[in-house]
Amino acid sequence: MEIPEIVGAGLIVIGAGLGIGRIGGSAMEAIARQPEATAKIQTAMLIAAALIEGIGFAALFAK
Amino acid sequence: MITKFNTFWALLGLMFVTSSAVAQDHDHEVHKEAAHHEEVAHDDSHHATALHGEDSETDIKAVIKETIDHHLADSYDFHITDGIGFPLPVILFDNGLKVFSSSKFHHGHEVASIDGDNYVLYHGDGKIYKALSTDIHTAIDIDDHDHVTNEKPLDFSITKNVFMILVMAIFMFFLFSGIAKSYKTSLKPQKAGKFLEPIIIYVRDEIAIPNIGEKHYKKYMSYLLTVFFFIWFLNLAGMTPLGINVTGNIAITFSLALMTFIITQVSGKKDYWMHIFWMPGVPVVLKPVMAIIELIGLFVKPFSLMIRLYANMLAGHVVLMSIIGLIFVFGKWVISPAFFGLTLVLSLLELLVAALQAYIFTMLAALYFGSAVEEHDHH
Questions:
Q1: pLDDT in tens, B262-294
Q2: Rounded Cα–Cα distance for residues A16 and B298 (Å)
Q3: Fold of A5-62
Q4: Distance (Å) of CA B55 to CA B50, B263, B291, B322
Q5: I want to staple B231 with a disulfide (CB 3.0 to 4.6 A). Which of B9, B153, B297, B358 is the partner?
Q6: Higher pLDDT residue, B54 or B244?
Q7: What phi, psi does B265 have (nearest 5°)?
Q8: Which chain B residues touch A60 with a CB distance below 8 Å?
Q9: Which residues in A lie closer than 8 A to residue B356 (C-beta atoms)?
């Protein structure tokens, strides 16, 4: 049985989603622990999320 | 702080790279297979029959698909809505420079004859080809794989995207040079400066200084500010109903990433190159391997900059327009208002994404500049 390409793209998007979710969750926990470091945590979170997002987009173009 | 001439020249360079890149842009984002539906999106009467036709469901989907494709693609005229719009100049370099109005194509219905040469605007990919004859029906030769075999002239046209870049460049030049001038009389921000000063300060204090460092950041401020406001304003322009999709065009994000790449490499210091080719603190056996990885990373960085901005804006536009399209697909009083609400919420989200993508592009550019000028003391 042949698996359509879109399934692979879906798997990648699931992975990217989980990754970004984890980053967001961890950032939120970190902010709760250290509210004074919010700005720094947010910046690091956005950069990491942006890098993972790139992989997610690769899935869209891999079709 | 805002060195207006630096901004101006950066924009001028931007315009040059982008305009040639846009014109030479190949078939990235437009789906060509629906070429034969092309008339549907343009023609109002077709539109009406599509709404009330027998197989209205498939027709409406084709209309929506066409509308989205048309919106995402670059074009030779500025089309706002039915009957409202204006043609833009076509500049071809083919046996000498040829400049004429895109209205000569009559939206692709006629062959344009200029100084003895014939050109045709092919509906399928929206590009200009050399016509084989003066008759529109035989002017284009398409092979079995739906590829046009006609010769292509070198195309430097002011397309819709280039036009928007020029408009935005002029707007930004007058806006920021006006603000800069107002600081000569008083340090209190005036007019637009009241709104933009905190953003400029934010770019300096939160993006440039932490990533590049106190010592070198000033050199890069003009580029970072230009790129930040250029991307942000164009993203916002994409949210207006004018049908602008400049930052969702890979040629434009390519030239933005290319400039970031060039600036990074040019400002690379000794330490930067040593960290690429001969990584300190790593066993000698590993050093060549690290050099290869670092060398790949050199090109992956601007590549990811390009893809991120392009894909984010393109995906945003597609999702938003698809959900607007769903209103018409369902066409029921019960369901359609829900999609209207969803469109509203997603538009607000897109406003956030517009600023966020500008921020991330500037942030990562600053990060790369920072790595290029960084000086290590520990070895």
A1: 999 999 888 888 888 888 888 888 888 989 999
A2: 23
A3: F1FO ATP Synthase (1.20.20)
A4: 8, 55, 60, 20
A5: B358
A6: B244
A7: -70, -40
A8: 311, 315
A9: 46
Nearest to A60 among B311, B356, B360 (CB): B311
Interface with B, mutate which of A53, A55, A63 (most B CBs under 10 A): A53
Domain that holds residue B118: 89-156
Domain C-terminal end among B123, B156, B189: B156
Distance from CA of A36 to the nearest CA of B (A): 15
> Are residues B195 and B96 part of one domain?
no
The terminus-to-terminus CA distance of chain B in angstroms comes to 35
Place of tokens 């001028």: B12
Distances from the Cα of B230 to the Cα of B22, B234, B244, B360, angstroms: 17, 6, 14, 13
Nearest to A54 among B210, B304, B356 (CB): B304
Query: Residue A54's closest chain B neighbor by CA?
Result: B308
Let me know if residue B70 belongs to a domain.
Answer: no
What's the ipTM?
Answer: 0.71
Which of B27, B209, B308 to mutate to test binding with chain A, by most A CBs within 10 Å of its CB? B308
Q: Is B307 within 8 Å of A43 when comparing Cβ atoms?
A: no
Task: Return the amino acid letter for A45.
Answer: M
B122 and B235 fall within a common domain:
no
Q: Residue A31: which residues within 8 A CB-CB, separation 6 or more?
A: A37, A38, A41, A42
CB neighbour class for B357 (10 Å; exposed up to 12, middle 13-18, buried from 19): buried
> Residue B194 contacts by C-beta under 8 Å, 6 or more apart in sequence?
none
Q: Specify the residue for token string 């070895």.
A: B379
Q: Are residues B142 and B170 in the same domain?
A: no
Q: Which of B308, B356, B359 sits opposite A54 (nearest CB)?
A: B308
- Which tokens go with A24? 């967001």
Contacts within 8 Å (CB) and 24+ apart, B289-298: B298/B265
Sequence spans of domains, chain A: 5-62
Residues B23-71: tens digit of each pLDDT = 444 333 334 333 434 444 444 444 444 444 445 667 888 888 888 888 8
Between CA B244 and CA B73 the distance in angstroms is: 9
Helix ranges (DSSP H) in chain B: 4-24, 38-42, 44-52, 56-72, 160-185, 192-202, 209-212, 217-237, 250-266, 270-277, 287-330, 336-373
User: In A, which residues are within 8 Å of B360 by CB distance?
Assistant: 46-47, 50
pTM of the model: 0.78
The DSSP bridge partners found for residue B122 are B127
Cβ of A57 within 8 Å of Cβ of B307? The answer is yes
Q: Give the nearest chain A residue to B305 (CA atoms).
A: A54
* Residue B60, in any domain of the structure: no
